[in-house]
Amino acid sequence: MTRPEPITADTILDAAARLIEATGVDAFTMRKLADQLGVAVTSIYWHVGGRDKLFDDLVDRLLAEMANLPLEGDSAADRIAALARAQRRALIERQHLLAIAHERDRTPLLFLPIQQKLAIELAQLGVTGAEAALILRAVEVHVVSSAVMQFTAVRGEKHDEEDPTLWTDDWPDQDLVAALQSPTDYDAVFEYGLESLLARLRS
């Protein structure tokens, strides 16, 4: 007979993060978390404290995760692209935890390590000052807006990508109309925009 995994602060935080990302912050309760773990609520309080302390610990773990996103590639532009992709993935996968961080005024700290890494890579390319700030912000805006569109499309109310009645039959490019009516490939759109942003840095 297999012995159950011992309950620790880490196993509680792992389960809480999964539950929050699956059902949202508003639906989260300590009772639901206890039921998922198969323990008494008092056991959770013993290991991690109350709901606020648990949320603070989750945000601290998220800060550490964002500070250690992979930075890989042979060139500065490749490393910027890898960091942007990793940040987008983290934003999509941690949508509800990000909301908790935002409520606790921790959002600037979440993005600071990423911005600093981007600034270091841009400096290696000789891009500093106001120009570096503009490129850094452009990359961050592209990452964040792409993540928001992605998880809104996945988790939001389902609807058609395009209303066919908005495009007339005599529009000269019917292949374009047909393509716009197919589901959006958000990964492809993100990659196209990212490569467009980095094109000058690669030249």
TrEMBL record:
One family name in Pfam for this protein: TetR_C_1
Domain HTH tetR-type: 6-66
Top-level division of the source organism's lineage: Bacteria
PROSITE patterns noted in UniProt: HTH_TETR_2
Record-annotated DNA-binding residue ranges: 29-48
Keyword DNA-binding attributed: yes
Keyword annotations from UniProtKB, A to Z: DNA-binding, Repressor, Transcription, Transcription regulation
Protein name: TetR/AcrR family transcriptional regulator
Lineage per the UniProt record: Bacteria, Bacillati, Actinomycetota, Actinomycetes, Mycobacteriales
